[in-house]
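Student: Please help interpret what follows.
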Amino acid sequence: MECTSSVYLPTFHMGSSIFLWLFLIFSVIFSPVSAKHSVTWTYGVNYGRIANNLPQPESVVTLLKAAKINHIRIYDADHGVLQALKGSGIEIIIGLPNEYLKEISIGEDRAMNWVQENVQAFLPDTRIRGIAVGNEILGGTTIELWEVLLPAAKNVYSALYRLGLQHTVEVSSPHSEAVFANSFPPSACIFRPDVAPFMKPLLEFFSQIGSPFYINAYPFLAYKNDPQHIDINYALFKDNRGIYDAKTKLHYDNMFEAQVDAAYAALDKAGFSKMQVIVSETGWASRGDPDEAGANVKNARTYNRNLRKLLAKKKGTPFRPKMVIKAYVFALFNENLKPGPTSERNFGLFKPDGSIAYDVGFTGLVPSAAPPSILVSFKEIAGQGWLRWSYLLVSTAWAVVLL
């Protein structure tokens, strides 16, 4: 959800450009959200917590601020996390977990109780901007949830409407690539025949309330499943021949944009050509099992760094050039208790101590491999408090200006 506002700069005379730079630095550091108010956001991060070694939510907020990550998504509505985000300016999508869908779908009163306890109680100081109703329901193996997804989403929206929050909090539901029958070339993508009867009424509802289509798009998974036929450079945004879509006469030099445009093509065929696609998850594993091709630190760094550069351009895709690409990267930390293959536990951008797992261009933190003399650990930042950390950044910036 976009949020824009004008910034008032007081008029006064400054003796030198140094003081102007200091003023701007202080404005950025002490603003609740550094850049989101002046430009359309494009980059967010998923904050998963299936782990037993993660820092406390208050410390995570410190990390998010230092890294200038202003949009996050969590998979539940944990009150400790929501309380920690109070006053931070960070915008958040919370999750209504799959196990609650049946209960919420039964009646509006249950949805109302959930929204009051997990959303209204924290607004406006905690900037809850969306509710993801379930995760990867359609196309999944739990068929009984397919039928309750739409009534659950409707009841959640009804509760928001009755509370006057329908324009503040968006209702959505992220999907996996499993909802598609095919996605190559992008223009050929359609929804699976068994999914379509459930997907179309859901899309009709989301179209009525102005919600986008959320898709979890992972070039890593596509490459891992077929490394012999997919060019690794195409998956990693590196130089390659790309692919040509004969129907649209469009060329794709990376798989990520092709996956997004495949979703647009499926929406077109279903009758929802004006609906925006937002990537609710994407990322690359830094470690995997022997049969998980491409899962290593080098590729994870390359993918996430290049993705961040792409999103920073604030441009659209070949098929939808005017629709700015927005994506939530998976994930903030490695989650050591997640089941499944090794890759599932190794998508994190940061280590539990707050140091960078690998350098993808974040500012405010340094890689854990840096010399001890310049390494500011996560525990030190949290212990010193945000004000002292801000002072450190200003001091560093002041030194740079003097040089």
